[in-house]
């Protein structure tokens, strides 16, 4: 029993509390130690039961989930998985929660809740287990304020494309990198494991905080310097060369490594186009998506970078890349923007 991941479920819906409990208790490595109907109740049960992980609803009585999360991350930081509705308002709030320091989120369907949430059981269980092992120090550093933009003295023209892939913890890792980049860099393509509704909210938030222009890719687009293009949560992002110019398009193919968008699909499209002057970067995330693609990029002659273990919320994807010698450089998150600018 002592080795089980101890979970506290916080949700104002008794039905959701029971359903989440049933899902998590089905795994022999997870134990739901308590449930709470609101943040005030949760606060007392955190003190009493000392959970390893919390699942937290966003909209609750007495105190909303965001306010509770802010207090929690300030007073007693621990891994929190947000349970969010598939709405634009829910997406915006979830993005805010990730910025504050939430580990990850699962989607709460607004209709046919039981069958759809049961379908997400594997995802929820995996995230709870990963949260229990995550780098809480990296989570605590998420909301440390805006950093200065790196100065671009003179472009050397070393690269024609920058490709960034990430998963768990990646929304804030990508934000840390992109918001520090100056104008005038080569185009950036980004694949982040995130649902469709959330990718729209995320791209808008990135764009509002960055010097470069960030767009969510929704159709074939010519890639331009000073722009970053985010894969939508519903499609893979692929790079193509047309008449000597780089374009990006979306691909509605099958999931790869259980993901769409997949980082490997993006990297492999770059390899297929023989784009040797590319800087490939893999950031924090569960699993191994992108590791093999980054290895192929390195073999093609591209420069490759992996985020280090100390600053990764989850050193799954970058760790897998390092394990197969896919990364020429292994850097802390706060050094990656500087590296991009220096090498360009």
Task: Specify the structural class.
Answer: alpha/beta
CATH topology of the largest domain, by name, is Rossmann fold
Strand content: 15-25%
Average predicted local confidence, pLDDT: 92
List the domain count as a whole number: 2
Topology as H/E string?
EHEHEHEHEHHHEHEHEEEEEHEHEHEH
Shape: elongated
CATH superfamily descriptor of the largest domain: Methylesterase CheB, C-terminal domain
Largest beta sheet: strand ordering: 8-10-7-6-13-14-15
The helix content, as a percent range, equals: 25-40%
The biggest beta sheet, please? 7 strands, parallel
Terminal CA distance reads 52 Å
Radius of gyration, in angstroms, nearest whole number: 20 Å
| Regions with little confidence, pLDDT below 50 for 5+ residues | none
Query: In total, how many beta strands?
Result: 15
Number of helical segments with 4 or more residues:
13
Assign the CATH class of the largest domain. Alpha Beta
Gross CATH architecture of the largest domain: 3-Layer(aba) Sandwich
């Amino acid at each position: 029993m002592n080795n089980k991941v101890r979970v506290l479920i916080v949700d104002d819906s008794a039905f959701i509390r029971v359903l989440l409990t049933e899902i998590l208790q089905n795994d022999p490595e997870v134990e739901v130690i308590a449930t709470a109907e609101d943040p005030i109740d949760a606060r007392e049960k955190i003190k009493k039961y000392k959970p390893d992980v919390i699942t937290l609803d966003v909209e609750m009585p007495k105190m909303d989930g965001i306010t509770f999360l802010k207090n929690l991350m300030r007073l007693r930081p621990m891994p929190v998985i947000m349970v969010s509705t598939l709405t634009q308002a829910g997406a915006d709030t979830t993005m805010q929660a990730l910025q504050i320091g939430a580990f990850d989120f699962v989607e709460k369907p607004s209709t046919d809740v039981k069958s759809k949430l049961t379908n997400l059981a594997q995802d929820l269980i995996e995230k709870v287990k990963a949260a229990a092992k995550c780098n809480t120090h990296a989570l605590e550093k998420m909301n440390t304020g805006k950093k200065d933009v790196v100065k671009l003295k003179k472009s050397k023209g070393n690269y024609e494309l920058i490709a960034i892939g990430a998963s768990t913890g990646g929304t804030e890792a990508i934000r840390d990198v992109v918001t520090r980049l100056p104008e005038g860099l080569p185009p950036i393509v980004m694949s982040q494991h995130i649902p469709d509704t959330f990718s729209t909210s995320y791209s808008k938030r990135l764009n509002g905080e960055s010097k470069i222009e960030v767009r969510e890719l929704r159709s074939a687009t010519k890639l331009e310097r000073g722009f970053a293009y985010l894969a939508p949560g519903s499609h893979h992002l692929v790079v193509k060369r047309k008449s000597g110019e780089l374009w990006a398009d979306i691909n509605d193919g099958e999931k790869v490594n259980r993901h769409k968008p997949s980082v490997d699909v993006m990297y492999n499209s770059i390899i297929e186009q023989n784009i040797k002057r590319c800087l490939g970067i893999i950031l924090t995330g569960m699993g191994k998506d992108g590791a093999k693609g980054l290895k192929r990029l390195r073999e093609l002659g591209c420069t490759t970078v992996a985020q280090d273990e100390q600053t990764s919320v989850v050193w799954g994807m970058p760790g897998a890349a390092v394990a197969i010698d896919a990364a020429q450089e292994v850097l802390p998150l706060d050094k990656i923007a500087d590296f991009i600018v220096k090498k360009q």
